[in-house]
Amino acid sequence: MRADLNRTGGTLGPAFDELKAIVVNATGHARLLTRDDVLLDKLARRIGQVGLPSLSSYLDFLKCGPSGRAEFDCLIAELTIGETSFFRHAEHFDALRDHVLPACLARNGASRQLRIWSAGCANGAEAYSIAILIHALLGDRLADWNVEIVGSDINRAFLAEAERGVYTDWALREVPDDQRAAFFVRQGSGWAIRGRYKHNVRFVAHNLASDEFPCLHNGIFAFDIIMCRNVMIYFDPANNARLADRLKSVLVEGGWLFAGPTDFNPRLEQNFSLEKVAGTLVYRNGSRRPVAARAHRAPAKAGAAKPDPSPIAAITPSPRSRRSRVGPTRCRAAPVPQSDIAAIVAFADRADWPAAARICEELLAADNCNAPAHYYYALVQQYSGAAGAAEQALRRAIYLDGDFALAHYQLGLLRKDAHDTAQCCRSFRNVLGVLGPLADDHPVDPCGQITARELRALATRQLELLGAQAGDA
Length: 473
Known about the structure:
Elements: H1 14-27, H2 36-50, H3 55-62, H4 65-79, H5 90-107, E1 113-119, H6 125-138, E2 146-153, H7 156-164, E3 166-167, H8 177-183, E4 184-187, E5 190-193, E6 201-205, E7 223-228, H9 237-249, E8 251-259, H10 266-271, E9 273-277, E10 280-284, H11 338-349, H12 353-366, H13 371-383, H14 387-400, H15 405-417, H16 421-435, H17 452-472
Parallel strand pairs: 1-2, 1-7, 2-6, 7-8
Antiparallel strand pairs: 3-5, 4-5, 8-10, 9-10
């Protein structure tokens, strides 16, 4: 197939140049700028798979609605590297086990909360390795803690593998044979991670090069520990500088950042202090930008003019000519003001849940029929470990606005954690029903960070995973 991709004037032509720009912008993979041969091989494979005759026809196909976007995910899967294994770079896990995790557990003893991010998690081996360490350190006390390990990756195929949690002997090469049975069970020719190590781990699609964070909806905020290893080696200096700043914005004061031994990013040393721990070097966040004080709002007087609405779109879809498949919309509340959203996110980013909850409670005291306010209150309750209160708030939001797609999705995740397969499948199907008539680029959150296409893909993947798990059972 590669021989059929004709060069023009000594180059591969404008179609290849445009494809390369799209891929590099989407992934931050700067090495592809000088490796036309690598990119061409991957493109030739995908072009052959979809049966198209040329680079230009493939470029046109990528721009063609949902099918093109699905194919772009397949191309990204070809270009991203998933080489990983359990307890890879043993010195990092020694530092986690012997110093970093004990220090975080001691510091957070009052709140009993711990948040860890495995950024660029590939097939999830790193996230599950951390879960194994935490189980060993906390033992029976884990039930009293609110521990969340978030694994994220741009490659949706990797995330599906991570959710499934079945690994080859090669991925377990650093795990001694006499310990495998404690962490895994045989499943065919592979090894399945035991369910107790999956309970505190969740996976989200996230692009370190282009997605904004902190992001409350995806849980990308207020981490005690971030593992971002063997990622920065692929980014150019501009992307690495931006990434270092964003990592600092979601790492709590005193939090720890692990980078790969080959990752070179000068901005890290500007943003963090470098400490030697258990024979390896780890970055430490020693300062945080201050959270701006939030002005107290006096109650509105009767008959007083309302302030101008926030320029941010409401978390409600455009009005439709037919009723929602999940029931009629009972209320169209005003959007939560941008300043309140920023304040909620700011307090959440430093894990100050009481302060974040107070903002939500003030909003609800002013208007208890505001579905977005109930939604944000649910997120605050969920991340602070109050799953029951979070579910109640989500159900209230859905009662007030049956078309609230994000509320349906978050309810599905909560019911999934509770092992209520029937209810979580119903919630994810409701997401797809609500999103059905919406354009792919329609924002479904007030900050424009999540589109209808992205949420549709998330709900679809959850349903696929639940179906696969039912088949395995």
